[in-house]
Amino acid sequence: MRSSSSNRRWIFALIPLLGVIALGIPTVQLARFGLEPANSEGSTTTIFVGRGMGPTELALQLEKTQTISSAKSFVLLGRVLRKWKNIKMGEYEVSPRMSPLEIFELLGSGQSIQHPITIREGENIFEIADAIERSGLTSRARTLELCRSPEFMSKLGFKAPLPPSLEGYLFPETYHFTRLQSPEEMLAIMTRKYRSVWADLQSKYSAQIEQLGLTEHQIVTLASMIEKETGAAEERPMISSVFHNRLQKKMRLQSDPTTIYGMWENYQGNIRKQDLLTPTPFNTYTTPALPIGPIANPGRLALEAALNPSMSEFLFFVSQNDGRHVFTKSFEEHSQAVRKFQLDPKAREGKSWRDLTKTALETIKRSEN
Predict the structure, then answer these.
(1) What global pTM score does this model have?
(2) Fewer CB within 10 Å, N or C, the chain?
(3) CA distances from 207 to 129, 199, 201, 212, 309 (A)
(4) CA dist., res. 262 & res. 267, Å (int)
Protein backbone atom coordinates (compact mmCIF):
# COMPACT_ATOMS: atom_id res chain seq x y z
CA MET A 1 0.00 0.00 0.00
CA ARG A 2 1.32 3.49 -0.87
CA SER A 3 0.32 6.95 0.29
CA SER A 4 -1.86 8.84 -2.14
CA SER A 5 -0.44 11.71 -4.17
CA SER A 6 -2.76 14.10 -2.31
CA ASN A 7 -1.16 13.10 1.00
CA ARG A 8 2.29 13.72 -0.48
CA ARG A 9 1.28 17.17 -1.67
CA TRP A 10 -0.31 17.91 1.68
CA ILE A 11 2.65 16.94 3.80
CA PHE A 12 5.20 18.86 1.71
CA ALA A 13 2.95 21.91 1.61
CA LEU A 14 3.05 21.93 5.40
CA ILE A 15 6.83 21.75 5.69
CA PRO A 16 7.17 25.44 6.64
CA LEU A 17 4.60 24.97 9.40
CA LEU A 18 6.37 21.84 10.55
CA GLY A 19 9.53 23.80 10.98
CA VAL A 20 7.77 25.92 13.59
CA ILE A 21 6.09 23.06 15.46
CA ALA A 22 8.37 20.12 15.12
CA LEU A 23 10.23 20.75 18.38
CA GLY A 24 13.64 19.87 17.14
CA ILE A 25 12.63 17.28 14.53
CA PRO A 26 13.86 18.51 11.12
CA THR A 27 10.97 19.22 8.77
CA VAL A 28 12.31 17.03 5.98
CA GLN A 29 12.84 14.21 8.44
CA LEU A 30 9.24 14.44 9.68
CA ALA A 31 7.95 14.57 6.11
CA ARG A 32 9.98 11.50 5.23
CA PHE A 33 8.75 9.73 8.39
CA GLY A 34 5.13 10.26 7.31
CA LEU A 35 5.66 8.81 3.86
CA GLU A 36 8.05 5.93 4.42
CA PRO A 37 7.23 2.54 6.01
CA ALA A 38 9.22 1.56 9.07
CA ASN A 39 10.18 -1.83 7.63
CA SER A 40 9.39 -3.07 4.15
CA GLU A 41 9.69 -6.68 5.30
CA GLY A 42 7.90 -6.45 8.65
CA SER A 43 4.94 -8.64 9.65
CA THR A 44 1.40 -7.54 10.43
CA THR A 45 0.12 -7.14 13.96
CA THR A 46 -3.19 -6.34 15.62
CA ILE A 47 -3.78 -3.27 17.75
CA PHE A 48 -6.87 -2.18 19.65
CA VAL A 49 -7.96 1.45 19.87
CA GLY A 50 -10.10 1.68 22.95
CA ARG A 51 -12.32 4.38 24.37
CA GLY A 52 -10.33 7.25 25.81
CA MET A 53 -7.00 6.13 24.35
CA GLY A 54 -4.81 9.16 23.78
CA PRO A 55 -2.26 9.85 21.02
CA THR A 56 0.78 9.00 23.14
CA GLU A 57 -0.64 5.68 24.34
CA LEU A 58 -1.58 4.65 20.81
CA ALA A 59 1.74 5.74 19.35
CA LEU A 60 3.68 3.83 22.00
CA GLN A 61 1.63 0.72 21.21
CA LEU A 62 2.57 1.07 17.53
CA GLU A 63 6.22 1.66 18.40
CA LYS A 64 6.30 -1.34 20.75
CA THR A 65 5.07 -3.61 17.96
CA GLN A 66 7.67 -2.02 15.62
CA THR A 67 4.90 -0.82 13.32
CA ILE A 68 6.38 2.68 13.41
CA SER A 69 9.93 3.75 14.11
CA SER A 70 9.15 6.68 16.42
CA ALA A 71 6.19 7.27 18.73
CA LYS A 72 7.23 10.92 19.18
CA SER A 73 7.23 11.58 15.45
CA PHE A 74 3.89 9.77 15.00
CA VAL A 75 2.23 11.88 17.68
CA LEU A 76 3.61 15.07 16.18
CA LEU A 77 2.67 14.11 12.63
CA GLY A 78 -0.90 13.42 13.73
CA ARG A 79 -1.15 16.78 15.46
CA VAL A 80 0.28 18.77 12.58
CA LEU A 81 -1.99 17.10 10.04
CA ARG A 82 -4.96 17.07 12.45
CA LYS A 83 -5.37 13.33 12.14
CA TRP A 84 -6.03 12.54 15.78
CA LYS A 85 -9.59 13.86 15.70
CA ASN A 86 -10.44 11.27 13.02
CA ILE A 87 -9.20 8.18 14.89
CA LYS A 88 -12.03 5.70 15.55
CA MET A 89 -12.24 2.97 18.14
CA GLY A 90 -11.72 -0.53 16.86
CA GLU A 91 -9.37 -3.42 16.27
CA TYR A 92 -7.02 -2.96 13.33
CA GLU A 93 -4.45 -5.01 11.48
CA VAL A 94 -1.41 -2.84 10.88
CA SER A 95 1.99 -3.46 9.39
CA PRO A 96 5.41 -1.77 9.36
CA ARG A 97 5.12 -2.03 5.57
CA MET A 98 2.51 0.74 5.84
CA SER A 99 3.58 4.35 6.02
CA PRO A 100 2.45 6.38 9.05
CA LEU A 101 0.07 8.28 6.76
CA GLU A 102 -1.48 4.99 5.64
CA ILE A 103 -1.80 3.92 9.26
CA PHE A 104 -3.64 7.14 10.07
CA GLU A 105 -5.98 6.54 7.15
CA LEU A 106 -6.72 3.02 8.39
CA LEU A 107 -7.31 4.11 11.98
CA GLY A 108 -9.67 6.80 10.74
CA SER A 109 -11.66 4.43 8.53
CA GLY A 110 -13.42 2.62 11.38
CA GLN A 111 -13.01 -0.65 9.47
CA SER A 112 -12.50 -2.79 12.54
CA ILE A 113 -11.47 -6.45 12.19
CA GLN A 114 -14.44 -8.79 11.77
CA HIS A 115 -14.47 -12.04 13.76
CA PRO A 116 -16.62 -14.76 12.15
CA ILE A 117 -18.69 -16.87 14.54
CA THR A 118 -20.41 -19.84 12.91
CA ILE A 119 -23.41 -21.41 14.63
CA ARG A 120 -24.22 -24.74 13.02
CA GLU A 121 -27.67 -26.31 13.02
CA GLY A 122 -28.07 -28.32 16.18
CA GLU A 123 -25.39 -26.60 18.26
CA ASN A 124 -26.41 -25.64 21.78
CA ILE A 125 -25.62 -22.64 23.96
CA PHE A 126 -22.67 -24.43 25.56
CA GLU A 127 -21.05 -25.03 22.17
CA ILE A 128 -21.82 -21.47 21.06
CA ALA A 129 -20.30 -20.08 24.27
CA ASP A 130 -17.17 -22.14 23.58
CA ALA A 131 -16.92 -20.76 20.03
CA ILE A 132 -17.30 -17.16 21.19
CA GLU A 133 -14.65 -17.65 23.86
CA ARG A 134 -12.24 -19.15 21.31
CA SER A 135 -12.66 -16.01 19.21
CA GLY A 136 -11.55 -13.93 22.18
CA LEU A 137 -14.67 -11.76 22.12
CA THR A 138 -15.94 -12.68 25.59
CA SER A 139 -15.80 -15.51 28.10
CA ARG A 140 -17.83 -18.71 28.01
CA ALA A 141 -19.16 -17.95 31.47
CA ARG A 142 -20.44 -14.50 30.42
CA THR A 143 -22.26 -15.89 27.38
CA LEU A 144 -23.97 -18.61 29.43
CA GLU A 145 -24.82 -16.11 32.15
CA LEU A 146 -26.62 -13.88 29.64
CA CYS A 147 -28.32 -16.83 27.94
CA ARG A 148 -29.87 -17.79 31.29
CA SER A 149 -30.65 -14.28 32.55
CA PRO A 150 -34.40 -13.51 32.89
CA GLU A 151 -33.60 -9.79 32.90
CA PHE A 152 -31.65 -10.03 29.66
CA MET A 153 -34.29 -12.19 27.99
CA SER A 154 -36.92 -9.62 28.94
CA LYS A 155 -34.80 -6.85 27.41
CA LEU A 156 -34.66 -8.89 24.20
CA GLY A 157 -38.45 -8.88 24.07
CA PHE A 158 -39.28 -12.34 25.42
CA LYS A 159 -42.58 -12.38 27.27
CA ALA A 160 -43.66 -14.30 30.35
CA PRO A 161 -43.50 -17.18 30.84
CA LEU A 162 -39.85 -16.79 29.92
CA PRO A 163 -37.98 -19.75 28.39
CA PRO A 164 -35.37 -21.48 30.57
CA SER A 165 -32.66 -19.85 28.44
CA LEU A 166 -31.96 -18.51 24.95
CA GLU A 167 -31.47 -22.09 23.80
CA GLY A 168 -33.28 -22.53 20.51
CA TYR A 169 -33.41 -18.82 19.75
CA LEU A 170 -29.81 -18.22 18.59
CA PHE A 171 -30.31 -18.79 14.91
CA PRO A 172 -27.69 -20.90 13.07
CA GLU A 173 -25.67 -18.74 10.70
CA THR A 174 -22.22 -17.23 10.29
CA TYR A 175 -22.05 -13.88 12.05
CA HIS A 176 -19.27 -11.29 11.87
CA PHE A 177 -18.62 -9.41 15.08
CA THR A 178 -16.06 -6.82 16.10
CA ARG A 179 -14.31 -6.53 19.42
CA LEU A 180 -16.29 -3.36 20.04
CA GLN A 181 -19.54 -5.29 20.25
CA SER A 182 -20.64 -6.46 23.67
CA PRO A 183 -21.83 -10.03 24.31
CA GLU A 184 -25.30 -8.54 24.81
CA GLU A 185 -25.19 -7.08 21.29
CA MET A 186 -23.96 -10.33 19.76
CA LEU A 187 -26.72 -12.42 21.35
CA ALA A 188 -29.30 -9.80 20.40
CA ILE A 189 -28.25 -10.06 16.74
CA MET A 190 -28.64 -13.85 16.86
CA THR A 191 -32.11 -13.66 18.39
CA ARG A 192 -33.20 -10.99 15.89
CA LYS A 193 -32.22 -13.37 13.09
CA TYR A 194 -34.35 -16.08 14.68
CA ARG A 195 -37.32 -13.70 14.94
CA SER A 196 -36.98 -12.76 11.29
CA VAL A 197 -37.08 -16.42 10.24
CA TRP A 198 -39.95 -17.21 12.63
CA ALA A 199 -42.04 -14.30 11.31
CA ASP A 200 -41.64 -15.66 7.79
CA LEU A 201 -42.61 -19.17 8.89
CA GLN A 202 -45.61 -17.84 10.80
CA SER A 203 -46.88 -16.23 7.63
CA LYS A 204 -46.20 -19.30 5.51
CA TYR A 205 -47.54 -21.93 7.92
CA SER A 206 -50.26 -20.03 9.79
CA ALA A 207 -52.87 -22.74 9.15
CA GLN A 208 -50.53 -25.52 10.34
CA ILE A 209 -49.63 -23.60 13.49
CA GLU A 210 -53.31 -23.20 14.37
CA GLN A 211 -54.04 -26.86 13.62
CA LEU A 212 -51.12 -28.19 15.66
CA GLY A 213 -52.18 -26.27 18.75
CA LEU A 214 -48.59 -25.86 19.90
CA THR A 215 -47.02 -22.67 21.22
CA GLU A 216 -44.04 -21.10 19.51
CA HIS A 217 -41.82 -22.34 22.34
CA GLN A 218 -43.10 -25.90 21.93
CA ILE A 219 -42.52 -25.78 18.18
CA VAL A 220 -38.94 -24.55 18.66
CA THR A 221 -38.41 -27.28 21.28
CA LEU A 222 -39.69 -29.96 18.90
CA ALA A 223 -37.60 -28.54 16.04
CA SER A 224 -34.47 -28.74 18.20
CA MET A 225 -35.12 -32.44 18.82
CA ILE A 226 -35.66 -33.06 15.11
CA GLU A 227 -32.40 -31.26 14.38
CA LYS A 228 -30.44 -33.42 16.82
CA GLU A 229 -31.95 -36.72 15.69
CA THR A 230 -30.86 -36.75 12.06
CA GLY A 231 -28.03 -35.68 9.83
CA ALA A 232 -30.10 -36.17 6.69
CA ALA A 233 -32.13 -33.12 5.71
CA GLU A 234 -34.72 -35.14 3.81
CA GLU A 235 -35.53 -37.16 6.96
CA ARG A 236 -36.58 -34.22 9.11
CA PRO A 237 -40.30 -34.26 8.15
CA MET A 238 -40.47 -38.01 8.88
CA ILE A 239 -38.67 -37.64 12.22
CA SER A 240 -41.20 -34.89 12.97
CA SER A 241 -44.03 -37.26 12.04
CA VAL A 242 -42.85 -39.84 14.59
CA PHE A 243 -42.69 -37.27 17.37
CA HIS A 244 -46.11 -35.81 16.50
CA ASN A 245 -47.64 -39.30 16.38
CA ARG A 246 -46.18 -40.18 19.77
CA LEU A 247 -47.38 -36.91 21.28
CA GLN A 248 -50.89 -37.57 20.03
CA LYS A 249 -50.83 -41.04 21.63
CA LYS A 250 -49.32 -39.57 24.83
CA MET A 251 -46.27 -41.80 24.46
CA ARG A 252 -42.92 -40.79 25.85
CA LEU A 253 -40.76 -39.34 23.10
CA GLN A 254 -37.67 -41.24 24.38
CA SER A 255 -35.13 -39.14 22.52
CA ASP A 256 -31.52 -39.75 23.58
CA PRO A 257 -30.41 -36.17 22.73
CA THR A 258 -32.83 -34.81 25.35
CA THR A 259 -31.24 -37.00 28.00
CA ILE A 260 -27.78 -35.90 26.93
CA TYR A 261 -28.76 -32.22 27.06
CA GLY A 262 -30.20 -32.57 30.56
CA MET A 263 -26.78 -33.69 31.82
CA TRP A 264 -24.63 -31.83 29.28
CA GLU A 265 -21.90 -30.55 31.56
CA ASN A 266 -21.48 -34.01 33.10
CA TYR A 267 -21.85 -36.00 29.88
CA GLN A 268 -18.90 -38.32 29.22
CA GLY A 269 -19.86 -39.47 25.72
CA ASN A 270 -21.92 -42.49 26.74
CA ILE A 271 -25.48 -42.80 28.02
CA ARG A 272 -25.91 -45.22 30.90
CA LYS A 273 -29.11 -46.87 32.11
CA GLN A 274 -28.96 -44.66 35.19
CA ASP A 275 -28.88 -41.54 33.00
CA LEU A 276 -32.02 -42.55 31.11
CA LEU A 277 -33.85 -43.21 34.36
CA THR A 278 -32.73 -39.99 36.08
CA PRO A 279 -35.43 -37.33 35.76
CA THR A 280 -34.48 -33.91 34.44
CA PRO A 281 -36.72 -31.24 32.88
CA PHE A 282 -35.30 -32.33 29.50
CA ASN A 283 -35.22 -36.13 29.79
CA THR A 284 -38.01 -37.47 27.54
CA TYR A 285 -37.52 -40.98 28.90
CA THR A 286 -38.97 -39.76 32.22
CA THR A 287 -41.05 -36.77 31.04
CA PRO A 288 -44.23 -37.89 29.22
CA ALA A 289 -44.26 -34.82 26.99
CA LEU A 290 -41.95 -32.35 25.28
CA PRO A 291 -38.99 -31.23 27.38
CA ILE A 292 -39.17 -27.92 29.19
CA GLY A 293 -37.35 -26.16 26.37
CA PRO A 294 -35.15 -26.59 23.29
CA ILE A 295 -32.04 -28.75 23.48
CA ALA A 296 -30.23 -27.01 20.60
CA ASN A 297 -30.65 -24.25 18.06
CA PRO A 298 -32.61 -25.52 15.06
CA GLY A 299 -32.25 -24.23 11.53
CA ARG A 300 -35.04 -23.26 9.19
CA LEU A 301 -35.52 -26.77 7.76
CA ALA A 302 -36.00 -28.27 11.22
CA LEU A 303 -38.49 -25.53 12.14
CA GLU A 304 -40.39 -26.19 8.92
CA ALA A 305 -40.40 -29.91 9.64
CA ALA A 306 -41.84 -29.32 13.10
CA LEU A 307 -44.61 -27.23 11.54
CA ASN A 308 -45.22 -29.47 8.54
CA PRO A 309 -44.53 -33.14 9.40
CA SER A 310 -44.91 -35.96 6.91
CA MET A 311 -48.13 -37.96 7.07
CA SER A 312 -47.32 -41.39 8.48
CA GLU A 313 -48.23 -43.98 11.09
CA PHE A 314 -44.64 -44.46 12.23
CA LEU A 315 -43.96 -44.48 15.96
CA PHE A 316 -40.31 -45.55 16.01
CA PHE A 317 -37.03 -44.94 14.24
CA VAL A 318 -33.57 -46.38 14.66
CA SER A 319 -30.25 -45.25 13.23
CA GLN A 320 -28.67 -47.18 10.35
CA ASN A 321 -25.30 -45.73 11.45
CA ASP A 322 -24.93 -43.66 8.29
CA GLY A 323 -26.95 -40.61 9.22
CA ARG A 324 -30.27 -42.14 8.17
CA HIS A 325 -32.93 -44.13 9.96
CA VAL A 326 -35.31 -47.06 9.61
CA PHE A 327 -38.89 -46.06 10.46
CA THR A 328 -41.33 -48.59 11.87
CA LYS A 329 -44.93 -48.70 13.08
CA SER A 330 -44.78 -51.36 15.78
CA PHE A 331 -42.61 -52.18 18.74
CA GLU A 332 -41.85 -55.60 17.23
CA GLU A 333 -40.59 -54.05 13.97
CA HIS A 334 -38.58 -51.53 15.93
CA SER A 335 -36.97 -54.25 18.03
CA GLN A 336 -35.93 -56.11 14.90
CA ALA A 337 -34.38 -52.93 13.46
CA VAL A 338 -32.48 -52.28 16.70
CA ARG A 339 -31.09 -55.81 16.68
CA LYS A 340 -30.06 -55.46 13.05
CA PHE A 341 -28.46 -52.03 13.16
CA GLN A 342 -27.49 -51.45 16.80
CA LEU A 343 -26.93 -54.78 18.50
CA ASP A 344 -24.98 -56.36 15.63
CA PRO A 345 -21.36 -55.12 15.84
CA LYS A 346 -20.85 -55.82 12.14
CA ALA A 347 -23.58 -53.31 11.27
CA ARG A 348 -21.67 -50.64 13.18
CA GLU A 349 -18.15 -51.51 12.06
CA GLY A 350 -16.47 -48.48 10.51
CA LYS A 351 -19.53 -46.30 11.13
CA SER A 352 -19.29 -42.97 12.89
CA TRP A 353 -22.81 -41.56 12.98
CA ARG A 354 -23.82 -43.16 16.26
CA ASP A 355 -21.95 -45.52 18.53
CA LEU A 356 -23.74 -48.27 20.34
CA THR A 357 -24.39 -47.38 23.97
CA LYS A 358 -24.39 -49.92 26.72
CA THR A 359 -28.12 -49.41 27.12
CA ALA A 360 -29.33 -50.46 23.66
CA LEU A 361 -31.00 -53.60 24.94
CA GLU A 362 -32.56 -51.79 27.88
CA THR A 363 -33.94 -49.19 25.47
CA ILE A 364 -35.87 -51.89 23.60
CA LYS A 365 -37.31 -53.25 26.82
CA ARG A 366 -38.38 -49.79 28.01
CA SER A 367 -39.88 -48.57 24.73
CA GLU A 368 -43.48 -49.15 25.71
CA ASN A 369 -43.10 -48.54 29.47
Answers:
(1) 0.82
(2) C
(3) 36, 14, 11, 9, 13
(4) 9
